[in-house]
Every structure is written in C-alpha cells, then in structure tokens.
Fold these 2 entries.
Entry 1:
Amino acid sequence: MIIIQLSIRQEKIVEIVKMNQPITSEQIACKLDITRAALRPDLSVLTMMGILDARPKVGYFYTGMAQNNFILQKISDIMVEDIMSLPIVVNEQTTLYDTIVTLFLEDVGTIYVNTNGSLCGVVSRKDLLKSIIGGTDINKIPVGMVMTRKPIVTIKKGENVIVAANRIIEYEIDSLPVIEDYYEDGYSKQRVIGRISKSNITKLFVELCKS
Ligand code: ADP
C-alpha cells in the first residue's frame, strides 16, 4: 500500500477531526490557534484526497478513503515548485505594444506586472484584446492602465498542486503567479518566482497517466 505523505499540520487536522467530528473549520482553526484563511489550503487538500468529508452547515468528518484513491496518492506529494514554469514579467510602465510583443515572443497567455520588483498586476490575452478594441493607443498607454490590480490570486511554491488546480478552477483564471513574500521599507511585498497554468496541470496529468 502507498503511504500518503501528509504535512505535520495536516496530520494534526486529521486527528482533531477524528476526535471531534463533526467539527467546523472555525473550531479546527481555534484548536490549532491559526486563522481560517491559513487553514483553508490544508482543508481543501484533505477533502480532495477524500480523507475528510465536508457537509454544509454541519462540519468536517473523517472518512479515510484516500488509501483507495490511486491518483490522489500519486499527486499528494507533488508541489507547485515541482511543475511550475518561469514567470513572464513586465514593468508597470511597459507599453501595451511591448506587452503584446512579449506575449507572442514568450508564447504565454498571461503576463505578470511588477512595480519596483514587486507584483502589482496581471494582464491576460483578453485584457489586451479589450484595450485594442476600445481604440487605446497601444504605443503610448502603459500596461499598468489595463491590468487587473490587487487582489491577485497567487500560490506559494510549497503548496500542493491540487490546491493550485482548485484555485484556478475556483477563480476561473488561466494561471497563478507563484510568489514569495518579502519585506521592504516596512511593507509586505510579493516577488514573482514562477507561474503555474492550466498547461502545467495538463502536462502533469499526461505524465501521471504514463507512470
Ligand atoms: P482571459 O481573460 O484571456 O480569458 P483569464 O481567464 O486568465 O484569461 O483572465 C480573466 C481575468 O482575470 C482577466 O481580467 C485577468 O486580468 C484576470 N486574472 C487572470 N489571472 C489572475 C490572477 N492570478 N489573479 C487575479 N486576476 C487574474
């Protein structure tokens, strides 16, 4: 039997649910002394693996079914950093024309936008098409004028690929910037270190079918 590698926190969550089921995410977060937002990625991994079951307005139950789920067993220890691609990044001041050229040259669908080295926006194919249809002077207008600003949906390199796939579906977007937090001048900022897109997930799917 293949043993699923859970993180220490995930194991703690499973133990808490086993002992207290049904239990709400607020109650689990309270027992672990963390916020619900911090708990969410672990809960989504555990429910997608079938180890926990969530029933609306009731709470979480332990099912322990993951042992039978071969695909999840294979994916459970594949992290974002194992499948991410290089991010394609332009500066906020880059013109729309140069951004479109970058999109073609780098063969990507989404470009991330930085200001002074930290992530400040995302621009997709359709964002660029919209600006062209609207008659914008693409040689003059900077990408910062048409990009999507915060909140940007992101992921960290140490998160599970199941969480990344789930986030892409939940927010109906094509890719997630992989970010690293850092502090500068007393502010918390985000540096882009990778990109995870529907293509990365599809490639992984094909690889898993081969193995
Ligand atoms: P397209 O618009 O080409 O279909 P997407 O579905 O990825 O591509 O993007 C839909 C919208 O969501 C766009 O306006 C885009 O700027 C925005 N968007 C894309 N990725 C992200 C992200 N990671 N975080 C926040 N917004 C995003």
Entry 2:
Amino acid sequence: MRLLVVEDDKDLNRQIVTALENAGYAVDKAFDGEEGLYLGETEPYDAVILDLGLPKVDGVAVLQGWRRAGKVMPVLILTARDRWSDKVGGFDAGADDYVVKPFHIEELLARVRALLRRAAGHATSELVCGPVRLDTRASRVVVDGNPVKLTSHEYRLLSYLMHHQGRVVSRTELVEHLYDQDFDRDSNTIEVFVGRLRKKLGVEIIETVRGLGYIAAAPEKV
Ligand code: CA
C-alpha cells in the first residue's frame, strides 16, 4: 500500500511518515499544497493524509482539485482543534475521515487502516485467504496458525494482494503501489518477491495469471 502525506510542519511530516513506514507502507511526502496537488493527481495512492492549512494551495483546494480530476483515493484530513468549519469544508470537498491536531499517532494509524480496508471492501482488520491470515493492525501473518516472518517488501506485496483478493493485479500496479517515489523501481523484482513469498507461506494462495499478473485466492479444497 502506498500513501501520500501532505503536511507543511516538517517535524510532524517526518513523524507521520516514519510511523507509516514502520507500519509497512510505502510513503511519499509533500510539504506544500502545490506539490501535494501534483503528486495526488499523477501518482496512484491507496490513501492520502492531508493537512488543511498548507502554503501555496490550501488543503481544501487541493482536495477539490483531486476530486475534480476524478481521483477517488480515500483522504484523511488533519485539522486544528478549533477549526470546525475547516472540517466541514473538508468533508464537502470529498474527505473520508479526519483527525484533530494534536493527535496520537496510533489513532492516525488505526484510521488509515480502516480507510484502506473499507476502500478495498473489507470490514475487519484481519484479512483471510484460505489458511493465510494477515493482521493489518500488527502487520503479522500466520499460516495455519503458525507465524511467518516476512520482510517489509514481502509483507507489502502480500497485503496488497490480500486487500484485493479475487482480482488480478498487474505487475505495473504492484510496482506503483508497493514502492515510494524515490525507490529504484524494477518490475522484475516483483517476480522475485512473489517467489520468496510463496516459499515462505508454503501454501498456494498466489496464482500467476500469465501475461496479466497475480491473483490471491484461497486454494480449492480437495
Ligand atoms: Ca499546516
């Protein structure tokens, strides 16, 4: 899952980005409305964290710009405690959720998880595919009840496929949603990660669809 953080307060931006990266997401960052607007219009994010008080272009205008451009990714707005009118403006502009500053980073993480799974049509924080269970809160994976240790890239890959299970996901889409902007992207590495993931899981839940990509699906019961 790839996220964008638009926040002009450098310390807060770094704090949010670090927490999200530690939680296993690929994260891009912007420090003003202009940069944020551009990134949100041109890159495919799974969710965005958007401050409302931003230099150059304010947050509400950024959000309106994205929605006008047909961008439907979930957007969580950050707003100051006494600015309830900002909040209303944010929702009118197409925000999906908000967090009031100052906030606990855990609350932000929980809201981001909820946005991501709702966007993918899941009601709970645990995703299940056959014998594989992925706990999005703890970033943990178990197979038949046994914990499996995954690297952050392997986890991201599995998490993305499981959020979209039953749908074929192309390699290009995976590359766009697993790596941040600065990462040296190479779609061949996806195949390597899929291979390692299959080996570690020990069960067939990731199928290759020749020429199209990959699909996560529960193995058929014999
Ligand atoms: Ca601000």
